[in-house]
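ok so I'm stuck.
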Amino acid sequence: MKDSKLLKGTLQTIILKLLSGTDRMYGYEITQQVKQLTEGEFVLTEGALYPALHKLEAEGLLATESEIVDGRARKYYSLTAKGKEEQVAKVQDALTFVEKLQLILNAKPSIS
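replied:
not stuck anymore, here's the structure
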């Protein structure tokens, strides 16, 4: 995706949606899932992902737990009850936005 600002504006919604379909995920796993689902069109950088994860955690939408995997600490993220509610709201907002944006993008220009 050429305009990373569009992706950044929906990053929290993307994270919440991905986590709603699983018990937990770690950061790299989230980046790879986004890449796979979008056939490489969306690429999440660590510089964008981790601040978003930390913000969601600070807002009480994500819970974390750490485990040692192959001798290294790995931090897993999961939705809290509040996060599950917020996910539903954010996804609905995004779907409504996309629907209205399509109306605008598909409209025939009027000549005054």
